[in-house]
Every structure is written in structure tokens, then in C-alpha cells.
Design a protein that fits this description.
Length: about 250
């Protein structure tokens, strides 16, 4: 398919890509790598806040198709990321009732892609993810999203809490999907400027994030299984928003 993530390898090549302003989706570094050039790359990655995975050399061999990677491989994102402040301002200027989606360190690319697809179908104005610890926007994400990743603006922030401060300062209410509440999804007024926060597959919404939100809400579960797949739960939240706004 077209628009796949570009994989680059070699320490110097990645340094040059970063310095040229390329949108790096994720960097893979060999465990226990040493050397001056590696230190330069590592410092640059930390400064830019890119997502990093320390992996064994066998993983790098596969990613680089067994080329001379020098212990470093990077994925250049096929989509451009947006500035959150600018996106909020633009949304408000268009007299829309803002609907944002915050993904608190979601890690599975298929879940990410499925959520992006649902977000596009439900009129989400922007998706917000954290720079580190979040699933990358790669070829698999785009495929699962059915191309919606090119239609829904995606913003990267240093920390999810930074995004909540910005949203709340713009009078956008925040609601977290969590089982740690007695409030039902159907008790929330979504017919107002709102941002829905979905947590990671294994941990849910971070406790420190839960302390900041305006509302907490859960889906009623009538069976014996205690939780839904995050992309399915996200779809339920988004379509309840659509239902309320259409009515």
C-alpha cells in the first residue's frame, strides 16, 4: 500500500533526519549501545521527546532488512502532526462544538487505527497522544484506520496532563472512561465542548490523569467479563456523543 512509514537506519542518517525536521514516529536502539555518536543521537532523541524502544540486535536486523543499521533504526511517520493550541483555536473559530479524543498511552497499533477510523466517522476534531509510550502512526495503523489517519488531525504532547491543562483552559470539559466510578456514560452531557480520555489496554487511564478530569464515566457491563476492548469502548463513548448531538 502507499503512504507506508519510511524506515531509516544508521546513527548518522537518523541524526540528519531529525535535524532536517522529519517527523519521527519511533526510534529503535540496540540495548547497551555505546559510543560518542550514539550519545549524540540519544541526546537529540531525548531533547525532541521521540518514542524510543531499546531492543535486541535481532529486532533491528529485521527492521532494517539485515542492512548495516549500527544499532539504530527509526520510522518516519507518514502523517504530519498538529500543534494542539492551534488546532483548538481553529476548531473554536469555526463555531464547532469541539470534540477531542485523548489516548493515554494506548500501545497497540491496531487499536489505535480502529479508534482513528471511528473518530473520523463521528466527527472528532483531533486526537491527542503522548510522545513517549504511545502507539506509533505507522503503515499498520494507517491500514487499520482505512486511511482515516490522513483525515483526523493528530497532536503529540509531552504529557497527557499538559493536554488536559490546555483543553480545560479553553473551557473544554474532560471526561475519562474508567470503571473507577459510579457514573454511567449515559449520565454525561456530551452536548458541550468535550474531550474524551481513553486509557491504555492494560492499565486504563493513569490515576494522576483521573484526578484532573471534570467527569468520570463507565459503560454498563452486563456479562461476566469485566472490561471491553479499548477501541470498542471508545466507539461507544463517541457514538453516545453523536446520539446526543443529533438529538
Amino acid at each position: 500500500m502507499e503512504n507506508k512509514s519510511t524506515v531509516i537506519f544508521g546513527i548518522r542518517a537518523i541524526i540528519e533526519a531529525i535535524n532536517s525536521g522529519s517527523t519521527i514516529s519511533k526510534v529503535y536502539l540496540q540495548k547497551d549501545l555505546r559510543g560518542n555518536l550514539f550519545s549524540e543521537l540519544n541526546s537529540l532523541i531525548k531533547k525532541k521527546g521521540f518514542t524510543v524502544s531499546n531492543v535486541p540486535i535481532e529486532k533491528l536486523d529485521r527492521l532494517s532488512k539485515y542492512n548495516n543499521h549500527q544499532g539504530a533504526v527509526a520510522q518516519i511517520s507518514p502523517v504530519e502532526f498538529h500543534d494542539l493550541d492551534t488546532l483548538i483555536e481553529k476548531t473554536l473559530e469555526e463555531n464547532k462544538v469541539p470534540l477531542f479524543l485523548v489516548l493515554d498511552q494506548l500501545s497497540d497499533v491496531r487499536n489505535f487505527g480502529a479508534i482513528i477510523r471511528t473518530a473520523e466517522c463521528t466527527g472528532v476534531n483531533g486526537i491527542i497522544v503522548q510522545k513517549n509510550g504511545s502507539a506509533p502512526v505507522n503503515a499498520e495503523t494507517i491500514k487499520t484506520s482505512a486511511g482515516a489517519a490522513f483525515k483526523v488531525p493528530i497532536c503529540k504532547v509531552d504529557h497527557i496532563k499538559d493536554a488536559l491543562f490546555i483543553l480545560q483552559a479553553s473551557e473544554i470539559k474532560t471526561v475519562a472512561a474508567t470503571e473507577k466510578t459510579d457514573n454511567s456514560l449515559y449520565d454525561i452531557d456530551f452536548n458541550q465542548p468535550i474531550a474524551i480520555i481513553m486509557g491504555s489496554e492494560h492499565r486504563g487511564v493513569n490515576p494522576s490523569v483521573l484526578k484532573m478530569v471534570d467527569y468520570k464515566a463507565k459503560l454498563p457491563l452486563l456479562g461476566e467479563i469485566e472490561s471491553l476492548n479499548v477501541s470498542v469502548a471508545c466507539g461507544a463513548f463517541l457514538y453516545e456523543t453523536v446520539r446526543q448531538r443529533i438529538n
